[in-house]
Design goal:
The chain is mainly α and 88 residues long. Helix content is 61%, strand content 0%.
Length: 88
């Protein structure tokens, strides 16, 4: 087991969730795409929103793909620093 596996199992135990089928890589991929193509603070917020959608019955792989695609089309303003949440 990896530290990530241990963490996901511990969190699922704490929240009384089933750790089987947690799409760890999909969530990490979406967070990476948002952090690098939109802005870093958007990554955890987007992961939360992905979770809300899945909690309402959406397919995790579909939601992750749609959010990554959206991040890929997000316009980057000239001179903006995607790491700076206050950047224009």
């Amino acid at each position: 087991m990896t530290v990530m596996d241990d963490w996901v199992t511990a969190v699922c135990t704490e929240l009384e969730l089933d750790p089987i089928g947690v799409p760890v890589q999909a969530v990490l991929d979406v967070a990476r795409d948002v952090a690098h193509q939109v802005l870093r603070p958007g990554a955890p917020v987007t992961a939360y929103l992905l979770g809300l959608a899945v909690g309402r019955g959406a397919d995790p792989a579909d939601v992750a793909a749609r959010l990554s695609a959206l991040a890929g089309t997000w316009p980057v303003e000239l001179g903006a620093d995607p790491a700076d949440p206050t950047a224009p």
